[in-house]
Design brief:
The complex is a heterodimer of chains A (286) and B (385). Chain A contains eleven helices and ten strands. Chain A has 286 residues and is an alpha/beta fold. The longest helix of chain A is centred in the middle third of the chain and has 18 residues. In chain B, 69% of the residues lie in helices and 3% in strands. Chain B contains 16 helices and four strands. Classes of the chains: A alpha/beta (286), B mainly alpha (385). At the A-B interface, helix 3, helix 4, helix 5 and helix 6 of A face helix 9, helix 10, helix 11 and helix 12 of B.
């Protein structure tokens, strides 16, 4: 079914090395439009590193990332990418966007953080409103002298609508940090949605949640996909959440992709079971 | 509905500011230089200069979270630019007595030639704006390398640049422009600003600095409450999140730095106007610390706090605690103890107490209108529940 769909994200042969540690080893993955794709794996499997390469936080040692048909990250074994962009080989890489997080967000890739990063001194409403800043057309002067009143008004209305959808309207004037944990997660997702992304990246959205909150969140993520038509790539530990909502799952272990497929396949995959539960008897296995 | 409420409170603020400006004009006429209350005018003049400097520093340190200590340098640029471009041609050669003045332009003279009295005002206004622009330009150039640094490193780098600026302005090779280490004087200053209304003259010596500060602070308030102000606050609260939400860090830090320096330049120009001299030696790093102190006293991240902090600081140091230096204080006559320098001792102790017990400053992160708003809101909420 996914053949006819447009490809949103493609990760090609990405390797990320920190000195001698290979955090991600030759990772390939694809995300198609409208899908919910999950990356799972035990602790230290390289999930977050993969995420950071995609969002432009790290420059990979090798590999390419395509987003929305454009090459956003490109590197080959012969050198650190950042140097190549700025040095004499700059011309050879001109087709790749320099992947700073803000540039990627402008292209339509928004993310949430594993350890919630809301703006602490601001209200729920302001938190979402600031995410609209990148959509503005005003410069400092027109903004200061309120030449952008219409745009500002429109953005405020959009934010109110968004808060209504995610169910945070009643707390919109409260400080972001005074919310309970589950609602802070929702707010973070709402903030990411305010940038009107094509692809939403969720870094362990259910981290630190109890089973009931997790269930609510699962429902919420499905709702978002239907309402906003965004594609979602998520990293998660909670198996029930992943199995419930994902269309496809990639499993990482020690930086390597060990399995991929629909949830039912993954559940019965032996390699995955080994990775998660440990091999029954090490000595007898080759 | 929300919009209407905001507009209403904006109007109230506007009317209060107008009334305050009118009051300043009236005080300017009533109080004569020989009166004891003349100190009030001095405080208003100097206080408004420092208030503007503190608010512009707050825009950078309090709202954007960039700890910069280069303020005195940018004020120096402003003061010199203003002074150089308003010295009248008749006084130029006596001011530049050791050098051959290189810049022979006087804005008030040029414009008053064509437009009369209004031209003089226009010339002074242009010189003030140019002062801000020069400071902003230099801030841009310094910002390119310096804004890559964070927290204490940024503070040290900007502090260094401010000292370099001061040293360069005192350099004798630049004498034809800056008059070396000698002071600039005889330029358009507030004590000479008067309005002729059908025979009677209205003194504007306090009104002008207060007006410049009011306009500038209003603009800063507008910026802080705009979408850019929100972006600055986002950078202060969490840089990583701000960048992930599409805010270009380098660009927004630069905007904040340049804007802050522009108003520091304007404050410097106003200071030259009030003191009627401009000398590089006055703009030492100690001045930056004083301004920083006002910001901290008032509350980092509160504009009305910075204004209150500046006014309190100036009133205390120029007026209320004066007696500590000159023999008698609060009716106690003890020339043995209350002598030169004792004021600073008391002042330092007072500041230590404030910093120890009111760590968030006078206002914290609140603004003046917030204090009124909170009380009104509470009963409404109860009724709704």
């Amino acid at each position: 079914m996914s053949e006819e769909r447009k490809q949103v994200l493609k990760v090609e042969n990405v390797t990320m090395q920190f000195g001698g540690v290979v955090a991600v080893n030759d990772l390939n993955l694809e995300v198609n439009e409208g899908e919910i794709v999950a990356i799972i794996g035990p602790n230290g499997a390289g999930k977050t590193t993969a995420f950071n390469v995609i969002t432009g936080v790290y420059a990979p040692t090798n590999g390419r990332v395509y987003f929305d048909g454009k090459c956003i990250v490109e590197n080959f074994p012969h050198g650190k990418m950042k140097k190549l962009y700025k040095g004499e080989n700059a011309g050879a890489y001109s087709h790749a966007t320099e992947p700073t997080p803000d540039a990627l967000t402008k292209m339509g890739m928004a993310r949430t953080f594993q350890n919630i990063r809301l703006w602490k001194s601001m209200t729920v409403f302001d938190n979402v409103l600031i995410a609209k800043h990148l959509k503005r057309t005003s410069n400092l002067f027109s903004a200061a002298f309120r030449g952008n009143r219409k745009e500002e008004q429109a953005q405020r209305e959009e934010v109110l609508k968004l808060l209504e959808i995610v169910g945070l309207t009643d707390v919109k004037d409260e400080l972001a940090t005074s919310l309970p944990y589950g609602k802070q997660r929702r707010l973070e997702i709402a903030r990411a949605l305010a940038t009107q992304p094509k692809l939403l990246l969720l870094d362990e959205p259910a981290a630190g949640m109890n089973p009931q909150e997790t269930q609510e969140l699962t429902h919420f993520i499905g709702e978002i996909r239907d309402q906003f038509g965004v594609t979602i790539l998520l990293i998660e530990h909670h198996m029930d959440l992943v199995m419930d909502i994902s269309d496809r799952i990639y499993v990482l272990d020690f930086g390597k992709l060990i399995a991929q497929g629909v949830p039912a396949e993954i559940q019965s995959n032996e390699k995955v079971i080994d990775a998660y539960l440990g091999v029954v008897d090490d000595a007898e296995n080759p | 509905m929300i919009e209407n409420k905001n507009r209403k409170s904006a109007w109230i603020a506007f009317v209060i500011v107008l009334l305050f400006l009118a009051l300043v004009i009236v005080l300017d006429q009533i109080i004569k230089p020989t009166d004891k209350m003349y100190m009030l005018l001095t405080v208003l003049q100097k206080g408004s200069v420092y208030a503007l400097a503190a608010v512009s520093m707050n825009l950078l340190n309090g709202y954007t979270g960039l700890f910069s200590l280069g303020h005195a340098g940018f004020m120096l640029i402003g003061a010199y630019t203003y002074a150089i471009f308003t010295i009248p041609s008749t006084a130029r050669d006596t001011v530049y007595q050791y050098y051959d003045a290189a810049i022979r332009i006087s804005f008030p003279e040029i414009f008053s030639g064509a437009l009369g009295g209004f031209g003089t005002v226009l010339g002074v206004a242009l010189a003030v704006i140019l002062a801000g622009l020069m400071a902003a330009l230099l801030a841009y150039l310094i910002g390119l390398p310096v804004l890559r640094l964070k927290s204490d490193y940024l503070a040290i780098a900007t502090l260094g640049f401010a000292e370099i600026i001061r040293a360069v302005f005192q350099w004798s090779k630049l004498g034809p422009v800056t008059n070396g280490s000698n002071l600039l004087k005889s330029f358009a200053r507030t004590s000479t600003f008067k309005l002729n209304l059908g025979g009677s003259t209205v003194s504007l010596s306090t009104f002008v600095p207060v007006l410049i500060a009011t306009i500038s602070i209003t603009v800063i308030v507008l910026i802080v409450n705009s979408t850019y102000g929100r972006a600055f606050k986002a950078i202060r609260d969490d840089e990583v999140a701000a960048e992930a939400m599409g805010i270009n860090l380098a660009k927004h830090k630069m905007i904040s730095f340049v804007t802050s320096s522009f108003f520091a330049g304007v404050a410097g120009a106003t200071m030259a106007m009030v003191l009627s001299i401009a000398q590089a030696n006055n703009f030492k790093s100690a001045m930056t610390y004083e301004i920083l102190l006002m910001v901290v006293l008032g509350g980092i991240g509160s504009i009305s706090g910075s204004v209150i902090g500046a006014m309190l600081f100036i009133s205390a140091s120029e007026w209320w605690l004066r007696g500590l230096d000159s023999g008698s204080f609060l009716g106690i006559n003890a020339p043995g103890v209350f002598r030169n320098g004792f004021r600073l001792v008391v002042f330092s102790v007072a500041i230590m107490i404030v910093v120890l017990f009111f760590r968030k400053g006078i206002m914290g992160e609140k603004e003046l209108p917030d204090l009124f708003r909170k009380r009104k809101k509470a009963p409404v909420k109860e009724a709704a529940e």
